[in-house]
């Protein structure tokens, strides 16, 4: 017997909309805010991802029943903030209460969380006893610990899928401010503005395109392939790729020597035309000083982390004082080696840094803007591992990241670098065992 094919969810049935009829995708409008048919909800950048929100915003959700009265029974798995549909959430707050309960064959715990986001900034969530014991080895002593809760909605109420301790230190203001800023930025760049769906782009297409809106993602959000059209931007002519390591063709380029170097699987040096009359000489000098280039990449990644993974232009990145210092030192080294004007080297160095972000699967780089989407997911995944595990086998974890982030390759030395950076900038205590290529909690 052939299994019945499950119908597509309502939120993905955009083909039901008659795009030939102007305005058929709008169910209501108030001032300049439009409310769209539920079939388009999956096109919103807030849908299908764990969205970083404040508890107060989540509990003060917009009552959209009057706009969707005929479908109200089918919309119990989402809320709406402004006109943005949200079906997954990520909240971070301090534990202000905990208790156990037993109901028939089910044992669990009630956790009260407060993120100080407003007059209604606390929420009580239910988790299983297994979840509780996994994050709180000792009951009754967890007041003030910072936790992150990820979940979905059922009957318009939050249902926990995952909960982790972000900081075991009670009243850790540094970690609290970090996650507060993530939610402030998301509110400012997305939720504060009304969702505008471009119907003209959808006309004549079977499936409309998700509009491009920048936003910060809560840590450990499940990655999705972009639904945005890929656009080509003008580039300078690039010749053949010069092998970064100097090994035979086909060998992975961009690896870094050392137990925790800042490598990337996409780092490449290339010969370019039209940048300088001495490109071949300069390219060779760059290859001879690849360690200096690696330091530049490391400093660039740190600058992006410190900016909370907000999108950044290449010009802004190279204006960061630490990144600029690496560029200037690199340029001076190359000038001493080749004797040409250092301005040429700065141009060459910045151009190769641009190529790194263009070619890396962890970043989107268009129109001179760097969007660290998958790099952010990688960083938060590592951060979560360090908070919930006692050891990390780097190579095994790299395989996991490769699948999770949907990338073709993930360099274990980049992972090691990020682990070392997170440990060095927090109160976590881990040590690296080089012979076993793993990290253990100490």
UniProtKB/TrEMBL annotation:
Residue intervals of the CST complex subunit Stn1 N-terminal domain: 32-211
A cellular component annotation (GO) from this entry: chromosome, telomeric region
Domain of life (superkingdom): Eukaryota
Keyword Translocase: no
Cellular location(s): Chromosome, Telomere
UniProt entry keywords in alphabetical sequence: Chromosome, Telomere
Protein name as annotated: Stn1 protein
Protein species of origin: Candida orthopsilosis (strain 90-125)
Organism lineage: Eukaryota, Fungi, Dikarya, Ascomycota, Saccharomycotina
């Amino acid at each position: 017997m052939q299994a019945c094919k499950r119908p597509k969810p309502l939120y993905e049935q955009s083909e039901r909309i008659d795009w030939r009829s102007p305005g058929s995708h709008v169910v209501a409008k108030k001032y300049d805010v439009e409310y769209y048919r539920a079939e388009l909800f999956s096109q919103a950048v807030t849908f299908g991802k764990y969205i970083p929100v404040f508890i107060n915003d989540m509990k003060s959700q917009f009552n959209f029943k009057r706009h969707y009265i005929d479908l109200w029974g089918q919309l119990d798995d989402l809320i709406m903030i402004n006109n943005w549909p949200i079906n997954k959430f990520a909240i971070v707050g301090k534990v202000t209460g905990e208790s156990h309960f037993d109901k028939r064959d089910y044992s669990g715990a009630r956790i009260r969380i407060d993120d100080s986001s407003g007059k209604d900034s606390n929420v009580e969530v239910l988790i299983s006893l297994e979840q509780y014991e996994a994050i709180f080895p000792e009951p009754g002593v967890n007041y003030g610990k910072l936790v992150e809760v990820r979940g979905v909605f059922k009957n318009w109420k939050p249902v926990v899928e995952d909960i982790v301790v972000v900081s075991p230190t009670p009243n850790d203001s540094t970690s609290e401010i970090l996650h507060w800023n993530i939610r402030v930025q998301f509110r400012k760049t997305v939720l504060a503005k009304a969702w505008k769906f471009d119907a003209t782009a959808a006309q004549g297409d079977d499936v409309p395109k998700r509009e491009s809106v920048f936003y910060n993602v809560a840590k450990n959000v499940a990655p999705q392939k972009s639904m945005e059209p890929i656009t080509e931007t003008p580039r300078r002519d690039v010749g053949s790729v010069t092998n970064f390591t100097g090994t035979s063709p086909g060998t992975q380029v961009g690896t870094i020597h050392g137990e925790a170097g800042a490598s990337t699987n996409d780092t490449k040096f290339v010969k370019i035309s039209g940048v300088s009359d001495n490109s071949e000489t300069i390219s060779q000098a760059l290859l001879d000083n690849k360690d200096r280039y690696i330091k530049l990449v490391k400093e660039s990644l740190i600058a992006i982390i410190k900016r909370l993974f907000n999108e950044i232009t290449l010009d802004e990145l190279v204006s960061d004082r630490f990144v600029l210092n690496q560029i200037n030192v690199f340029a001076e080294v190359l000038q001493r080696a080749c004797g040409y004007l250092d301005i040429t080297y700065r141009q060459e160095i910045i151009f190769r840094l641009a190529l790194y972000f263009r070619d890396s699967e962890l970043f989107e780089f268009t129109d001179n803007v760097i969007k660290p989407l998958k790099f952010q997911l990688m960083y938060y995944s590592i951060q979560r591992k360090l908070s919930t595990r006692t050891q990390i086998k780097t190579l095994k974890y790299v395989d996991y990241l490769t699948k999770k982030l949907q990338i073709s390759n993930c360099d274990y030395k980049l992972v090691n670098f990020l682990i070392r950076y997170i440990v060095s900038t927090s109160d976590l205590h881990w040590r690296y065992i080089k012979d076993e290529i793993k990290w253990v909690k100490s």
